# Entry
Amino acid sequence: MSADDTLRQLAEACGIHLAYDSWTGDRQRAEPPTLRALLGALGVETGSDAAVAEALGAREAAASARHLPVEQVIDAGHPFEFPTGSPCDWSVIDADGAELQAGRGTDGIALPPLPVGYFTLSVRGPGWTDEVFLLSRPAAAPDLTTLSGTRSGWGVSGALYGLRSSTNGGLGNYADLAQAMRALAQAGAQYFGINPIHALGWAATDTISPYSPSHRGFLNTDHIATDAGLGPGPEGAQIDYAAFRQRHRQALAAEFDRFENTAAQAEKTAFAAFRAAGGTELDCFVRFETTSERHGADFRDWPGSAQDPDNIAADPRDRFHAWLQWRADTQVEAAQNAARAAGMPLGLYLDLAVGARIGGAEVWMHQDIAARGVSIGAPPDHLSPAGQSWTLAAYAPNKLAQNRYEPVRTLLKRLMAKAGIIRIDHALGLMRSFWVPDDGSPGGYISQPFSALLAVVAIEAWQNNCLVVGEDLGLVPPGFRKRLNQSGLYSYAVWQYETEADGALYPARHLRPFSMACFGTHDTPTIQGFWRGRDIEWWRTLDWLNSEQTMNAHGSRARQRNSLRTHCGIEPDARPDDIRAAIHTGLAQSPAALVTVQLDDVFGCEQAQNLPGTIDAHPNWRRPMPVAVEGFAASRALAQTGALMSPARDHAAPQTHKEPDTCPS
# Structure
């Protein structure tokens, strides 16, 4: 066997794909530089041919030494058998270290039914011992009927940062969120979906994208509502984050001083309880925030000793950053309680971003699990011929499994405890990820422990009574959606992406039943922008399209408009309001279990919140809503949307978990 053959064998054993099909249909082979880079990201030594051979041998020896698998997904409430081939004593330990079951087997283990959760099976045989991590999953994650008592529903999505009010100072906050959800509940919506509210990092003053967080398990403190308020935002078409943060942080500092000096004992007791419940994870996060104030937002630029969390001692400033998280947590909980009290059965619908920034708190805190020297990205396609690197960190699947899927379990638990729905952005990453090496080597795919990650999501959803949507857009591998849906995760259907071979849109009746359907997202044009081709004009303005390509794109859009005219009965002289109503009616009457309309569409906005592939060339994440939250309750547009959606949703057909892998023609 040649050295390259050994390298490929090791890579394949570690889950690295040796080839993939490109968007042009060509087979792309992963060459040795890519294989070495991705193996290095997993912590596998490949500096010499001898090291590669040694790593492969060690892996094979470790596998042959085991009698039982390292981990096993089992169905809660059902017995499970492990063959051992020899007598053994065994016991099952729960997550708190208590023994639940024990027994002796002659040539195998007959494991009695276990509840939903995580357990350790400890086995001792003649001359060997093994431990198996058991993921005891529910039959499925909670569905809409279980959580809301209805078989179909609808909700609204919008940008939290874009909410305007007379007191928020120019950036939407958690108090605005509560007020908005009360008004949306009045219109009949069952949930309100917002952009991720992950912590961006106190020192990351230039970061505004909610999809580039420092840590996904903690909250964005920019959205804390101050007690005295900051007055209305300044006049202008875009949000000025720098000016807002300066005023907002001064107000927070003053409030913290008042808390320290004059707060009632009950408040201080509640804060102390929050810190105690947060444990070492919260302590470590706030140490990052404090240290970042001295050394910057990217820990890779810190002095060498500071790059190791164990070298960072507690600091009095930590208390301020812990207080910020407490304030944010309390206000998000209050918003969810307000939504439920107003009649929203699901309430808050939150996004889980693909990953955290490579130099942020999440990676700093979990460097032993993070993949080194790579970024999550995407292979070359028709929009990005050079491919994409999202500068977001990945967890090494081998190390994640060794650590029993911490910290993914923890951050899911934190997020699901606050929401009725979460959406997993780029859910394809549960099965495989595209990693882009820092050394310039071409990127490649690596498999993820799909069964175990699906089990983790289902377990956390079941324990927190949370509905889960998997954003399954793009090149979906065969069988992926079926397994996603069988685990209780809803698919995500964006109507403007559901096209025939000639580019025309499918009728809404072909949208997938076990899905959350919408016309567009923050990354796509609004209905009005779609109709007028505003996204195409942006691409032309940015020189992404030449004149001929622009003309072709407008031609394709014309076919899409004509298909919508046919499907939705839109007249040639229809006004923008009529077009939006017709499209929303089509969605409402679709078989999709959940239908989401965008606030931007409710209020007739034309420009999108984000243009993928840009940072400052397009005003991403800076567009405020045209209607202040104080006006939501009296909004005629919102009331009309509710009157259109609610009756149609009440008559949708019952849903099942079984899905075709492709949209029917």
The longest helix spans residues 265-295. Confidence is low (pLDDT under 50) at residues 651-665.
